[in-house]
Amino acid sequence: MISVYTRLISGLVFPLHERLKHHSTVAVRRRMEQSQWWPAEALAQLQADRLRALLIEVGAKVPYYRDLFARLQFDPASVRSTQDLQRLPLLTKAEIRAFTPQLKHEQAQDLARFNTGGSSGEPLIFFIGKERVSHDVAAKWRATRWWGVDIGDPEVVVWGSPIELGAQDRVRQVRDRLLRTVLLPAFEMSEAKLDGFIADIRRIRPRMLFGYPSALSHIARHARQRGVAMNDLGIAVAFVTSERLYDEQRDIIASTFDCRVANGYGGRDAGFIAHQCPQGGMHITAEDIIVEILGPDGQPMPSGQAGEIVVTHLATRDFPFIRYRTGDVAVLDDRLCACGRGLPLIKEIQGRSTDFLVAANGTVMHGLALVYILRDLPGVQSFKIVQHSLAHTEVQVVQGPGYGLADSAAIVAGFKRRLGAEVEITVQPVASIAPEKSGKFRYVVSHVAAQNGTTTQHEKG
Cβ contacts of residue 209 below 8 Å, gap of 6+? Predict the structure, then answer.
């Protein structure tokens, strides 16, 4: 049952907030709530039409694509289906880093600068315009409403991004208070912090949780160890994202909080790619995002077979993401979901896990606490963090142009602040980051956490 207060926030306050920011979020969400029921053929036509419009625009106004289309003799007006994307090359993180200024729309205004790196191990700087923000927020909002909750319902967010954690100014605090959103930092998870998180969640009695699956399952496990009941709070759903969701994590979150668990897949770079509905389908945000699953030869893989996820975001004319290689692996599903939505499905998402690490004093923290130190150094092309013991952590770094001794010193200093001044931090230059024996890439590996049972679920991946 949606409360009167939630109706007020979702129907009046939040739409006013978005209008003041010159976002079209409400209109986009309403269109999406209609188009989600369209048949696959109608959605495919919508994608083709929007793709053609995007390519015509960027071909005229984005220097990178104007030059690319000229070299390829590619006429964007000739695009008739999403398959025409295969006439264009893939866009990589390295390409974005090399041509960042040229990828900006010549008339773009008020672009927001973002950094990402996450579990991919490759730091990236890119820009997002108001159109992209509006569409991404609308996609997340639509998926939230699938579960019978809405903006304005009490929410606890367990997160670690400095974008959120560093933006708690007075205006944002007032907004979060109105929206009844409480942010808990996921970087540090000492026993004292976990006790505080549990107390906060019990006090707030949220209708929904949002966070990393590893962080929410860690809180759930600690509550069980403490003997604190968390199943009487009226939590309807836990939204998890940013990492692969393992069955063990889903089970302990669901049973501890007595709630459903809704998986989400996406990122700041690629956008909100897919969300899970209550019937279990991982629905692609097809109105905004074209997903290709490609094999090692760059050719499309049939449904049911794994390949790399390549994304074209149709609301990114200000800084285009066209055929963007995510580095993740997934399997598409050709069936229809029992919910009746026409949105295509992802059957399985493979890869994407970030370990916890353990500080010298025993504090458990999310691996992103150290990833964020590395990703903001422009001379770091890629990296891998290996915590060998409480006393020694190795950082393998592929050095790019401009990398110098100051960068190594910044890594050592930043890691010591997190892990402890007495911890030995070894910065090891490498030519490339090697995959695991399984063939998967992991960029945060803690042997200490694994020994303590903290990341046993990751080892199963």
Answer: 155, 156, 157, 158, 201, 216, 235, 237, 238, 239, 253, 257, 259
Could you tell me the CA-to-CA distances from 173 to 4, 111, 439 in Å, in that order?
Answer: 22, 23, 44
Q: Write down the pTM of the prediction.
A: 0.81
Spatial separation of the C-alpha atoms in residues 445 and 435, rounded to whole Å: 12
What does the H/E/C string look like for 296-328?
A: CCCCECCCCCEEEEEEEECCCCCCCEEEEEEEE
Where would I find the beta strands (DSSP E) of 367-421? 380-389, 392-399
Q: For the chain, which residues make up each domain, given as ranges? A: 1-352, 356-459
Q: What angle is formed at CA 158 by the lines to CA 31 and CA 185, rounded to 5 degrees?
A: 130
At 375, the amino acid letter reads R
Taking only the tens place, the pLDDT of each residue in 85-134 is 999 999 998 899 999 999 999 999 999 998 875 444 567 889 999 999 99
Burial of 207 (0-12, 13-18, 19+ CB in 10 A): buried
Return the CATH superfamily for domain 1-352.
ANL, N-terminal domain (3.40.50.12780)
- Produce one character per residue of 252-267: b if its CB has 16 or more CB atoms within 10 Å, e if not: bbbebbebbbbbbbbb
Q: What architecture is the 356-459 domain classified under in CATH?
A: 2-Layer Sandwich (3.30)
CA 398/CA 381 separation, integer angstroms: 5
| Residue of 100, 101, 75, 99 whose CA lies nearest to 88 | 75
Say whether 392 sits in a helix, a strand or coil. strand
Task: Count CA atoms within 13 Å of residue 231 on its CB side.
Answer: 11
Residue 451: helix, strand or coil by DSSP? helix
- Over residues 179-218, the pLDDT tens digits come to 999 999 877 777 888 999 999 999 999 999 999 888 899 8
- Cβ neighbours of residue 120 closer than 8 Å, sequence gap 6 or more: 93, 326, 327, 443
Each residue's pLDDT tens digit, 286-303 = 999 999 999 988 999 999
The residue behind tokens 């390519």 is: 55
Best CA proximity match to 179, nearest among 1, 8, 20, 2: 8
Strand positions, DSSP E, 129-193: 155-159, 181-185, 188-189
Beta strands 282-284 and 271-276 are antiparallel
